[in-house]
Known about the structure:
By secondary structure, the protein is α+β, with helices and mostly antiparallel strands. The protein has 2 domains: 2-142; 221-402, 2-Layer Sandwich (Heat Shock Protein 90), CATH 3.30.565. Helices cover 62% and strands 10% of the residues. It contains 12 helices and 7 strands. The chain has helices at 2-22, 26-49, 56-63, 68-73, 77-96, 99-178, 184-212, 225-242, 263-279, 311-314, 345-355, 390-413, and strands spanning 221-224, 246-249, 258-261, 286-294, 297-304, 359-364, 375-382. β4 (286-294) and β5 form a beta hairpin. α5 (77-96) packs antiparallel against α6 (99-178) and α9 runs antiparallel to α11. The longest helix has 80 residues, at 99-178. The radius of gyration is 36 Å and the shape is elongated. It starts with a helix and ends in an 8-residue tail after the last helix. It binds adenosine-5'-diphosphate (ADP). Adenosine-5'-diphosphate is lined by residues 272, 276-277, 280, 304, 306-309, 317, 322-323, 329, 340-347, 375.
Amino acid sequence: MAVQESLQKIRPIWIERVSRELARGEGVRVGFAEQLERFYELLEQTVATGDTAWLDPILYDWGRSPTETNLEEGDYYVSFVINRMIALIIEVTSNNLEKEEALEVLAAVIPIFTHSLSVVVRYEMETRVAHISNELGKVQEKLQELDRSKSSFISVAAHELKTPLTLIEGYTSMMADVAKDTQMDSLLQGVNTGISRLRRIIDDMIDVSLIDNNLLTLNFQPMWVSHLLNLLKNELQKTITERKQTLNILEFEGSDLMIYADTERLYQALQNVLTNSIKYTPDKGTITINGRLLPGFVEITVTDTGIGISPEHQATIFEKFGQLGRTDLHSSGRTKFKGGGPGLGLSITRGIIEAHGGTIWVESGGYDEVKLPGSTFHILLPTRSEATDPRIARLFSNFENQTKESEISVKENTPINNSPA
Ligand code: ADP
């Protein structure tokens, strides 16, 4: 009883003190004082009953009240207010009550204030987490929109470039016929090199837009990984020799297994990885192809002794234009040391491997042009023994599951009628 009387005594002083310190402006102060009156009344109820639930509604209102500005600026305003309320109740009791009376009041109210603080902090955190998730959702939406416009730009640009390029190709070949055995011949060869490079870029852009729109069709045929690797070796041998590099293709379990895959697309995917290994490995470096058989998969690894890839880039190199920022690396040479291209190769490679139901990832000890930590690309391919596109197989299995489910629900919903007809 004594505590409650003491609380009554200091009520107007505390309310005046808190609103003077925390609410600036007359209008705000009136509203704030009303809130403080409400809080104080509930505080007294809590002291009288020992039940902190009395305070819950007002704490809930306060905890959920941060404004958009508070949230954006990361202010924990309500927690700060309660902290100040604690400091001011200590000040007001010590200045206005006898020592013993003050201690009694503080012993009763401090646990209630600390409880209030913990509740408000929790509510404020929840409000903040909801705000952040909401903001993240908006950013994600924007990113998706950006990705969509990136892929429609690629598709439009590729088709727009294709038509004039075909025309240029036609005219160049006509000019080549006329200029045969003249000085123009070598100039036209230069034009042809440019044309092939442009054609490769356009083809890559078309592949990226096919992959983005899930339109890449695969032509499954029986094939052997070792066969594909030997074809690649033959094609790349000239470049490897020019760059004084060594290409080792090791025999591994699984390389002679017959699997079903789109040979041309897989060739393209592995060619991208190998060309990169050549490009990002200095002269005299070594590239090793190895692998192993895993349950349901054959793994192919391509390891080089090149400049390696930093951890942050390991996550982005499989995205389209993942390395677009590195203009210092752009070059017209396809296998020149560090001669970066438009940054579509690995995104296409991943699209092809994933369309086969496989995965690709990279391991590297980081980027260092002096220590040359190298990189290892891992490719997992399903050891499929029939010519079915995994995406179609998935569609069928979904369809079958749905059919089974609807059969079950039909059975469940059909009344059992045992009576003879
Ligand atoms: P690009 O056309 O630039 O070669 P890719 O998609 O083929 O595009 O490769 C993306 C980026 O990944 C490259 O620009 C390069 O920075 C990095 N990269 C790919 N393979 C290797 C490798 N074997 N060693 C080091 N960096 C690599």
